[in-house]
Amino acid sequence: MLENLATGLYALLTPMGIAVIIAGVVVGIALGAVPGISVTMAIVLLMPVSFTMPALDGMMLLVGVYIGGMAGGFHSAILLGIPGTPASVATCFDGHPMAQKGQALKALGGAVLATFIGTISGVIVMILASVNIARVALTFGPFEYFAIAVFSLSMISMLAGKSVMKGLAAGVLGMLMASSGMAPIDGAVRFSFSSLQMMARLDVLVVLVGVFALAEIMVSAETSRNNLGTDKVQVGSKSGIGFGITKKEFKEQIPVLARSSALGIGMGVLPGIGAATINLLAYSVAKARSKYPEKFGTGILDGVMATESTNSATLGGSMVPLLTLGIPGDMATAMLLGGLMVHGLTPGPLLFVEETALVYGIFVSMAIASFVMLLVLLYGEQFIVKVLRIPKHILLPIVFTMCIVGAFGLNHRIFDTYIVIIFGAVGYLFSKFKIPVGPFIMGFILGPMAETFLRRALMLSQGDFTPFVTRPISALFLGCTVLFLSVMVVKDLRTRSSAKAKASA
């Protein structure tokens, strides 16, 4: 192991290698911070450049973009309330309220630290246990994936806020919206309204940009129209250990970071889950395990560090099935798979034998890219937060233009620009009627996943539902779902009874 790591380190420790990693991280951060440009799109944009390089240098560039892009996504989520990437959706829930309270630097510093810890944790586990983790992942079939999706959907109740009914309604609406177009497996057309564009289904990133970005622009424009030029946000000041947080605050976050990083690594190994789903799940888990769940959504450090450490830990986890089995964990690693194949490399067990220097060079480059990302963000945050000092009547039109251009750039369809505006209006109505956005997004992302794996499972079992409860892992997740919902129902009933008792007294 140590000999292989030394080989990989020797292969990349060249001026060209270090320059490539730094360039990849910086470009990734810049692209990831732009609403509408996902990590996948950032890798695609740099892919042609990597083809002209040697295999290891090309992969180091893409790995740097991968890590930098994930880190860049939380900037617009915190500063503007707009997720730069789908993996930063839940970061908006507490990150933006912290910025509005004058704690932008603290939120950004906590996100930087959590991103670094999550990424390093994922890389270490990837190096030490790649093959063994991949073997466990192979035991998961459609039954297990469906159970995971159902368990994740049960977390909607944690994101519902004060009104469980509004949260459930938002979740159901999200699932209905995601079901438009061609159905998975059989390709049946539903809710297309005779539109060829709708048959392709709604792009999740377009919906995210609309619900978060355009809705935030509409709300901000409405609230600041009477005080143009004086609507700047206070960013706070640096303190403590150099990340805007104190040593005491960091110690309090250690359990959150450990739990969230472990969740990100474990879920990241499973192909098809995606960082966006894991991000929302991590936020729900952090809220469920917190001593003060009522503070979530009001702007607390726990929500930011939980989500960012989780989605960063998925980086290492998702690379495990890619390198050991040739199975991409998400769309971003699917692009990395394409990068490997263009250079004539086939991921799998033989890659570790035939291209040892390359494989462990990728491992080491991810670790180095993590430190580069930490340094770039640590010394660059003061410049990044200057965006908050731009008056909103100047900033909002720029962001609006970027959102529309980003929506068009995803699939090069004018149709997507209409969709982003429609969902902007939906997000605005959500804010006016105090309907939580989290359940809607979770339903939109997890609904198709649950349906797809349910159909695959029933095809495999020829319509028999028994394997869902006889297969151990599937039964475990479904059992946890029932237990969790039971606890939430009992908790809600107790809250209502205590409220009635206080009212009568």
Quick gist of this model?
The chain has 505 residues and is mainly α. The chain has helices at residues 2-12, 15-32, 39-51, 55-79, 91-100, 104-138, 142-154, 156-159, 164-178, 204-224, 247-268, 275-289, 301-325, 331-342, 349-354, 356-384, 392-411, 414-432, 437-461, 467-470, 472-504, and strands at 181-182, 189-190.
Shape: globular
- Portion in strands: under 5%
Q: What is the share of helical residues?
A: over 70%
- Give the strand tally: 2
The average pLDDT is 80
- Total helix count? 21
Read across the widest sheet, the strand sequence of neighbours is 1-2
> Which regions are unreliable across 5 or more consecutive residues at pLDDT < 50?
226-241
Largest sheet: 2 strands, antiparallel
User: Element order, helices and strands?
Assistant: HHHHHHHHHEEHHHHHHHHHHHH
- Terminal residue distance: 68 Å
Structural class: mainly alpha
User: Which radius of gyration do the C-alpha atoms yield?
Assistant: 22 Å
Counting structural domains, the number is 1
Describe the model.
There is one protein chain. The protein has 21 helices and 2 strands. It has 505 residues and is an all-alpha fold. It has one domain. A two-stranded antiparallel sheet has the order 1-2. The longest helix is centred in the first third of the chain and has 35 residues, at 104-138. Residues 226-241 have low confidence and may be disordered.
